[in-house]
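It would be a great kindness if you could assist me with a short task in structural biology. The matter concerns a single protein, recorded as an amino acid sequence and a row of backbone structure tokens. Could you please explain, in whatever detail you think fit, how the structure tokens follow from the sequence? Thank you for your consideration; the sequence and its tokens are set out here:
___
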Amino acid sequence: MFDKMKDLWEMKKKMEEMKKELDGIVLESEDELVKVGITGSQEIKSVTIKADLSSVDKAKLESSLTETVNRAIGESQKTAASKMGGMGLKLPGM
């Protein structure tokens, strides 16, 4: 029983270390209109509108922002899965 508790404690410690590492990784996704920065733990750090707002269609900007955020999230998920796979951990659904 104590071995299992020790294993759980070690796993918790590894997960905390992994979260710190993922928090320190900032990934960026961008297109011609927007740029999004996101951490490996999926916290949005920045959103930059690169285009002149007076010359951009609102619907096009909204679509660009949605697509760019989704790409950033996907990259963040891949990074987290890769890091956790290196630890011998698997994320559900990955």
